[in-house]
Amino acid sequence: MDSSLCQAYKDEIQSLEEEIRLLAEKYEDNQQESISFSDEEILMSINSFQKEFQKQSGGHEFPSDLKAQLESLETDLSFLMKFTGIQFTSHSKKTMEKTRNRTVQKHRLSGNCHSLSFELEFQLLETQTKDSVSAVITDLSIMMESGEDSDLSKFVSSTEEHGNLLTFFRSLSSYAEWHEHRRCTFLHFK
């Protein structure tokens, strides 16, 4: 084989590898952007999708089971937000590392619970074996305005140390509800 032909193949391979790398970066950026939507943007997208689907199907409605599922999910979400008082305002996810049986993703959540706002950052390490998938939260960081409440600061520090999000949300819901009651009571006496 001619050396100039071999060099041309090497150059083509190198340009294709560069193109693949650029496309992978672009894909990651698009994935990151598509995850960070507010509730209003999601609802607008759902409505837009419904209208587009109706146009394509000649004005026919969604299949009844799909529409029922969507309504059921919206009802469940509304119930959970009312029940817990927790409302997420944004979420972003970025894949930091991905191998065949291990994935590390960095998550960022923000929202509020009654009148308290919060922001969380954590890494989720998922490992997959033949039988199961396990997920572990690492590098948990919680940002809240605790003000002069040392109990809340201690609770946040303890939760960050143990990395237990379920305990955090359960306790936050209860604490924020009573915090709101105390605030209303003090306003009443002012």
Task: Reconstruct the topology from this structure.
Elements: H1 3-35, H2 39-56, H3 64-84, E1 86-98, E2 102-113, E3 116-128, E4 133-144, H4 150-162, H5 165-189
Antiparallel strand pairs: 1-2, 2-3, 3-4
Overview of this protein structure:
Keywords: Coiled coil. This is CENPP protein. Residues 6-33 form a coiled coil. Pfam families: CENP-P. With 190 residues, this protein is an alpha+beta fold. The chain has a domain at 85-189. The chain is 58% helix and 26% strand. The protein contains five helices and four strands, in the order αααββββαα. The protein has helices at 3-35, 39-56, 64-84, 150-162, 165-189; strands spanning 86-98, 102-113, 116-128, 133-144. Strands 1-2-3-4 form a four-stranded antiparallel sheet. A hairpin with a 4-residue loop joins strand 3 and strand 4 (133-144). The N and C termini lie far apart (91 Å). 4% of the residues are buried. The mean pLDDT is 80.
Helical content (DSSP H or I, runs of 4+): 55-70%
Helix and strand pattern? HHHEEEEHH
Shape: extended
Strand order of the largest sheet: 1-2-3-4
Radius of gyration: 24 Å
Short characterization:
This is CENPP protein. By secondary structure, this protein is α+β, with helices and mostly antiparallel strands.
Structural key phrases:
single chain; 190 residues; alpha+beta; four-stranded antiparallel sheet; extended; CENP-P; CENPP protein
